[in-house]
Every structure is written in structure tokens, then in C-alpha cells.
Amino acid sequence: MLKSVIATVLGIAAALGIFASPTQAQDTLAKIKAKGVVVVGIKNDYKPWGFLDPTGKVVGMEIDLAQEVGQKLGVKVELLPVIAANRMEFLNQGRIDLIIATMGDTPERRKVVGMVEPNYYAGGTNVLALKSAGLKRWKDLAGKKVCAVQGAYYNRRVTQLYSPELVVFPAVPDALNALQGGNCVAFLFDNTLIESTLAGGDAKWAAYEMPLVSEDPQNWAIGIRLADLDSPFGAMMKALSVEWHKTGKLIELEKKWGIKPNPFLTAMHEKYKGS
Amino acid sequence: MAGFEDFFRWLNDHYGINFSFFYDSFDRDRLLLGIWTTVELSCLCLVLSLAIGVVGAWLQGSRFTLLRRVMQGYIQFFRNTPPLVQLTFFYFAVGGLLPRVADASGQAVPLVSSFGWAALSFSFFAGAFNVEIFRAGIEAVPRTTIEAAESLGYGRLKAYVYIVLPLAFRISLPALNNNLVNLVKTTTLAYAIGVPELLYAAAQIWSEQFNVWEMMNVLLVTYVALVGVLVWGMARCERALRIPGYDT
């Protein structure tokens, strides 16, 4: 009896992965080259960084960056759509080799994943709201229902500072649908996505605006496993990021995808141009 | 109290085991609200789905063909589609068509909130199963018992309320238990439309604190406890309602 109980408990524990050890530090660069494929976690709901074109193919600025990485490595690129809430787990479990998915570079996240420097983009926080909602200041959000997306770094900060009633959805389209359905007064997100949504010229956003002053500027970084940060793979990614700023590749892609010129990219280009 | 919080902070700093809700009041409030919302949603759905089951089973035996057909249609629709699909359909498709009403601050808000849609949709979903469970119980009541009631002058409704239902309910209890346990677990789907229930709260916490492992365990333990309370209550109910000599 006792034996079978112990066996059952051990079986459950094993099934739950309690005994699973974290991924061992390995030479990721050599592994990717041996496999001939690099798996990149990207967004497919974040126009124009990563989104589905009418034929159902994932395209966007970050997809182009992923292809650049593949070219540099001389391997094929496999794209795996991720969301904010699962991308870091996917990376640490080894399902993807790197994250290029509009990921903000925060101190908390740096404990979990390696952030490739220099950062390749920067965004801020703002809201998308009906013009008729009459929002003027961040304080106007107090007590109102505000849609957001799970796992975004600014959810907590905005809730603590301005106490809106956040209604958080798993993905961007769900939250946008809820906004259009009147389930919330505003949609809390990166100013970059809001700008490109409004600039897209879609009639259904004609009555909407980005009424507040963007806050809390945040750099975006490519994420790799912490163990890879000081490996040849990490060094290669850092060099590639420097190269993108130096050659103006990022500014060129920004223009290609119709994103409003970002002062961050101009400043970084100036900084690395002479190096 | 401070010592308690310090212990969990120390546990996080030294061993990376992060039960953030024990020392971070923001996370604690979120988790408590999550547990409360789950309990509230579960209780509401339990009561509503039982009411639907009782009334629905009665309508199923109605003399009017149209009523029986409508009941059948309802059961087929809600039993044959996944609850997550029903929920998103109600919230995004039906909710958008309903008129808006003004709330306290004069803002136009939807008639039914996300919590309201979750409660309605899960009640209808579990209710469809409850109708069938009660029907099985009703059909197990001996025909002779109903005839005896009729010969004593009971009408259809009176016989249903006083004779058939009390017996059928006892027969249905084990199957009902199963369905209600499933109902409590189904409330996690409300997460998809932003109802701040337990899974939602846990997901908010782990996407900020990256303590997926800890929160998963908290989720499991909490649901085992919640469902445990329900099963215990139902078992007591079953024992209390037992008729000596009527064991089948």
C-alpha cells in the first residue's frame, strides 16, 4: 500500500516536471548551424512589426530582422508566433532560439532572459480611445474600464499610478474588438502600434485618437537565453545589432513599413555611424 | 505579519521561489479578487444552471410540440458547441449588437458586462447538460408512482413538483455532481474575455513576476480546494436526502 502511494506521488511529480532540470548552457551557435535552422519567436498580431498579410503569410519589420539573422548565420529561418505571456518561457524551454517580438527591455525581464544590446527600437505607453470619450490626461482613466493585453510591462505601472479598471485580454485583436464593442473606454498599448493603427487609414478607426502624452519610454531588445549572452551566439547578435544601427538598416526598414521616424533610431545611427 | 512577508521575500531572494502575492500587496489583492470572482461566478452559475435544468426537464415533457422542439433546439445548440466558442460568440458578436446604456458617470457601456456574459453563457452550457441529467432521473421514476399521484388528483405540475422531482433529484445526484464539478472548472474560460477570475489573476501575476512554476502550483491547489468543498457539500446533500429503503 505505502509503496504504491509513494510510486503514485513520484509519478505525478515526474509528470509535473518537478524533476526536470533547466536547459543546460550549450553552444547555441554551433547547434543552430548543425541543425541548419534558427527558430525565431515573432508576433503575428502587431502591425507592422509582425502581422499576417492577405495571403496569410507573416510579414513585417521584425520578420525582416529575423531573416537578416538567418542570412548572417547562413541557415533557414523558422518563425514561431509568440505572445507577451509565453515568449520568455518558449525561449528558456528551447522551443525558440531568440525573441524578436516587440519585447520591452526591463530590469525584471533581464533576470529571466538575456537582452541583446544595443536595443533595436524604443516605444512608449499611450492609449487608443474614441474621440468622443474626451480623455485629456492620464488621470482621466481613473476608475474607467481600460482594455489591455496580458503580459505587457506597462499594465502594472499604469494601474498603480492612475488606477483604471484594467480588462486584460490574451491578444491584441481581442482587446481591439472589445474596444470597438464599447467594453472599455480606451486601449492601453505601445504608442508605436497605436500610431500605425491610426495611420493605417482603416475606416473603423476614423473616430479614434491617441489622446495622451506618451509616457515611460522603453527600449525594445532581442531576447536570447541568459546562458547565451556571453557565448559566441550572443556576441554575434550584439555585433549584428550594432551593424543594423551603423548601416542605417533599421531606419531603412522603418521607412519600408511606413512607421513614423523614431528619434531613438536617428540618435543611435548618429552614435554608431563613425565607429 | 512583517516577519511572514519577509520570509517569502527572503525565499525569493535566496532560492528564487517567488510567491509574490505573500509580500506584494498589489499581487495579493489581485489574487484574492481572482479567488472571490471565481467563487462568485461558480455559485451564480450553479444556481442558474440548476434552475434551467429543473424547468427545462419539465418543459421537455410538455404537451405542446413547439415547447418540446424549442427545448430540444436549446439542448442541441449548447451541448454540441464548445463553451469557449459560446462565450466569445456572446461577448464579441451578440454583445456588440445590444443597445448601450449609460452608467453612473454618463459613459455609454454595454448592457451586459463580461462577467454577466460569462455567468449567462456557462449557466446555459451547464444547464443544457442538467436538463438531460434530470430527464434521466425523471424517466427512472416508476410509471406506477406517477399513476398513483394522478389517481390522488395531482395535476401535471403538482405531480412534477411534489412527487416526480424529489425522487428524480435523488437519482440524478451522482451525475449532477459530475456536471457541477465540470462547471466550476469551466469558469476558467472566462479568462478569454477579461473576467478577473483565478486563472486570469494568476496569469497577470506570472507574466509580470515570471513565477509560472509557483503560480501553476497555487492554481492547482486552489482548484483542488474549491472543487473539494463542492464535492463535500454535494456528498452531504446526497446523504441527507437518502430515503431508507429507496436505494437503487
Protein model, in words:
Chain A has helices spanning 2-15, 28-35, 61-73, 87-93, 107-110, 154-162, 172-180, 191-199, 232-247, 249-256, 263-273, and strands spanning 37-42, 45-46, 50-52, 58-59, 76-81, 98-99, 114-115, 121-130, 145-149, 165-169, 186-190, 208-209, 215-220, 223-224. Chain A has 275 residues and is α/β, with parallel strands linked by helices. In chain A, strands 8, 9, 10, 11, 12 and 13 form a 6-stranded mixed β-sheet that branches. Chain A has a 3-stranded parallel β-sheet with strand order 5-1-6, with helices on both faces. In chain A, strands 2-3-4 form a 3-stranded antiparallel β-sheet. The longest helix of chain A has 16 residues, at 232-247. Chain B has a domain at 38-200: MetI-like (MetI-like fold, Orthogonal Bundle), CATH 1.10.3720.10. Chain B starts with a helix and ends in a 7-residue tail after the last helix. The model of chain B has no long low-confidence stretch (mean pLDDT 89). Chain A binds chain B through residues 84-85, 88-89, 108-109, 111-112, 133, 143-145, 147, 150-151, 153, 155-156, 159-160, 167-170, 174, 177-178, 180-183, 185, and chain B through 26, 91-92, 95-96, 100, 105, 107-110, 114, 191-194, 200, 203-204, 206-210, 212.
Largest sheet of chain A: 6 strands, mixed
According to CATH, the fold-level topology of the largest domain in chain A is D-Maltodextrin-Binding Protein, domain 2
Structural class of chain B: mainly alpha
Give me the Rg of chain B, rounded.
23 Å
Largest interchain contact? A-B, 32 and 25 residues
The overall pLDDT of chain A, averaged over residues, is 86
N-to-C span of chain A:
72 Å
Strand and helix order of chain B: HHHHEEHHHHH
CATH architecture of the domain at 38-200 in chain B: Orthogonal Bundle
CATH architecture of the largest domain in chain A, by name, is 3-Layer(aba) Sandwich
Oligomer: heterodimer
One letter per element, helices H and strands E, the order of chain A comes to HHEEEEHEHEHEEEHEHEHEEEHHH
Unreliable parts of chain B: none
Beta-strand portion of chain B reads under 5%
User: Into how many domains do the coordinates of chain A divide?
Assistant: 2
Radius of gyration of chain A: 21 Å
Low-pLDDT stretches of chain A = 19-25
CATH topology of the domain at 38-200 in chain B: MetI-like fold
CATH class type of the domain at 38-200 in chain B: Mainly Alpha
In total, the number of strands of chain B is 2
